[in-house]
Queue: 3 jobs
Job 1
Amino acid sequence: MGATRADESMEANGTGAPDALEEACGVFAVYAPGEDVARLTAYGLQALQHRGQESAGIATGDGECLRCHKGIGLVTQVFDDAAMDSLTGHLAVGHVRYSTSGAAASSDAAQPHLSAIDDVAIALVHNGTLLDTDRLQRARAAQGGSMDTDTKAACLVIAEATRETGSVRQGIRWAMGELQGAYAMVLATPEALYAFRDPCGIRPLCIGRLPSGGWVVSSETCGLDIVGAAYVRDIEPGEVARLGAEGLDSELGPAAARRASCIFEYVYFARPDSVIDGQSVYQARRAMGAALAREAPVEADLVLGAPDSGTPAATGYAEASGIPYAFGIVKNHYVGRTFIQPTQAMRERGIKLKLNPLPSVIAGKRLVVVDDSIVRGTTSRQLVAMLYEAGAVEVHLRIVSPEVAWPCFYGIDTASRSQLLAAGRSVGAMNEWIGSSSLAFLSLEGLRSAVSGARHQGWCEACFTGSYPMAVPDDAPSSSTGA
Ligand code: SF4
């Protein structure tokens, strides 16, 4: 992937579309009477900014009503002191968004989504993608077809179910039987928070505790760290956890045929300082690099990481292979998504805005370049060309995931199957197109062994295998569901 974050990965592929799997949102919530819950949530969202940069929002509740502020841009662009000061209360839910369905960048699609169940205000934040089922379409139709995101439709389904069952938690449990797809959600009423995950547990969600006794919910543990919260546990697939005056109280909802947490969180999406289900993301990436060094050794002078997400894996590869690790590619962290070039010639220059090799390090050297994944391959191709231009004599690409040959329908924005370089191509053909000296991918077994420290070993691996753990859209490419 080379340039490897959503805000930096608009690639020179001639379409303006990203050459990367794009994160799909981060959620964060706080229940802490007596604390500045809005600012705590803003800090948490900044820690989760890598999961979405299109919009940010926070809603707070004070026991009687909800207040909300949201907008387009990064957390620091959306919130100033005046906005923070207006968000009073003892609980908050927040969201950073990268759109995968529904409306793209618009303040209307920004979350939290506000709604009501009779006269009780609710705010919903969502990481994932819901399948556009008949149930959701009926919810949209009931609103005159105006509901342009799956989150809004989910709100209506939950509201209807709450009216039927008489309680918000029972309403959520009932709605979970109706909603299909990947979701890690937090729903706020003025009095309490409800955090819940889909029955397969595709997207991560965890709970932490503040020193004051307050509660925190976050997509990743790096969000807990920034507010000084201690990790308590991950929310279980199918669990509905209520956080309120009585503390933490949870119930299990509908069971799935099998657990299927997204294994790609460890490869790329999550921050390396996060721990998911007991497995450190950083250590997993180092282990992936080490496993690949054993599976695909090569004689070389230096190991480089494609910054930033390839770096931990590169250090693992270097240690296992005995080839020195070197800092040979400098990344510009300030090239944003908005910097889409209008002409092909300028687009082709795109990667040079983000990555620049150091000739003094790599000239005359045989390089192993470790990256997390290949999507369309355009970034890899340009990176390899740049390394040769800078004087490398060999460039051996080592990818610490299997070939991405199938699209994701569970909250990650992938290219269509026809645009994925690995779809229908051999590794040899890919190597030839990219122009590398050799190309190798980590095996699925190697990837699984790198995350063997996780408490649960049920994975979604569908973008590698095409075997989807739950339903996919009707117009999806031919595949199988293992549900
Ligand atoms: S298809 Fe791939 S990216 Fe999507 S949830 Fe499954 S493992 Fe994760």
Job 2
Amino acid sequence: MSGLECLHVILLREVSSAGAVDLSVKIGALRLRNPILAASGTFGYGLEFAHLVDLNRLGGFVTKGLSKESMEGAPGPRLYPTPSGMLNAVGLQNVGVRAFVAEKLPVLRKFDTAIIANVFGYSVEDYIEVIRVLEDADGLAGYELNVSCPNVKGGGMQFGCDPIMLSEVVAAARKTAVKRPLWVKLSPLVTNIGLIAQAAEEAGADALTVANTYPAMAIDYRTGKSCLGSPTGGLSGSAIKPITLRLVWETRKSVKTPIIGLGGIETVEDVLEYLSVGASAVQVGTASFADPRASERLIEALTKVLERAKMFTFNEIRDRFRAENS
Ligand SMILES: Cc1cc2nc3c(=O)[nH]c(=O)nc-3n(C[C@H](O)[C@H](O)[C@H](O)COP(=O)(O)O)c2cc1C
């Protein structure tokens, strides 16, 4: 029997009792209405989706990456479809943290959902400056550090690929982020994600988001040019799900810190698989391009699956795979 078939059997065996399904989850000190969030870079600043999606129903959403100054981003084309996935090279275009606080946050604050600010930089000081500006603003539930950026001062190596550099940036961010939880979004481009996860945990991360996109490329052999405006991009979508699922499991075996899993989630089964290898919540990215309501649709589907199974919390699902296979 596959892991998913096992899970369905467990779900169906659950004892019936009265009461409503409780989809709420705790990520450290932060309680979310449900375990489904929209992922950074695929949901704008949230506002762009507000006429299509009921933001108040989401577990939350993660903003586009925010930098200390506005960034124009990469030349087009920025997106390119691949079999079972998508390549992107957006180049972290964003309005900059101060414009986000002045223009977007006042409108966002009216929604009753957890807004997580995704933060990036090219030096430790960059990250700290962005967090300092956000600390003075109301209306955020937490921060997510994108550590897949090259550390320009440190020779261009990604923060997320080296445990020492990662520790440094997470510890500095932790010291600055006194008001809110700090999530660290790991890069999948590592040989041992357990070591990286331990470094982030020891430096004070409240949760680990696993994972970002996979560096990849697509070329047109007739012209000899990239199909993107940049030579390479990041691969996302269903093509990456099996790889990231393993990364979540490897991370779960190495740390106690809660994990938010993401990579290729499109169906309720995908959500259940991530939870069963140890994620406490998930994010939905590329699926929102095909269906902007993807996250809301998954919340509805998850509620139905649990109701049908007469199951009222996620306790039976989470870590199920780990329990059987470790
Ligand atoms: C167009 C696009 C832009 C993205 N921008 C960001 C970003 O600014 N910061 C970040 O941490 N991740 C960014 N990501 C990565 C996603 O949040 C997510 O980690 C990745 O796409 C894998 O999930 P998925 O397969 O569900 O899309 C971006 C992804 C896409 C497709």
Job 3
Amino acid sequence: MGKSSKYLIPLKSLSEGVHEYEYTLDDAFFGHTDSSEITKGTVAAVLTVHRTGDIFELHFAIQGNIVIPCDRCLDDMTLPVATEETLYVKFGEEYREEDDNLIVVPETEGTIDVAWYLYEFVALTIPLKHTHKEGECNPEMEKILQAHSSVEASDDGESEATDPRWNALKKLKETNN
Ligand SMILES: [Zn+2]
């Protein structure tokens, strides 16, 4: 995610008590993530770090909009995001995730980069199936999809017969055998 120093929280040097960080996750933020389904976004995140001794409670309040491809027509669609997450961080020998929300960071470094967590928390809100509202899909794609599904319904499930090129290919394979 490139230079993410503003996402690097200097836990070790924080005083006891509450510290607040505000972020705007924009197109550049989401664009920098390689394995990203999210192409764009404008998401506000408020991170509150509460230090008690060497235990840190990180509370994330995340709200905004992201842009992802629609499952049905593949065009961009906007999805509202609103989520809250809490992470606990303590120091240890080396970095590890003790469980889903307890992170151990090396005491020698004493920092945590929250960029990845911010991204992950946003990504977790994406429903498994996400499509435009009924009637708002790309009309060209909708026509193709409808034509395809009506052919499929009318030929007893043998949908491979829909494209004559596949038959030609099959014949070719058969004669080669
Ligand atoms: Zn769509």
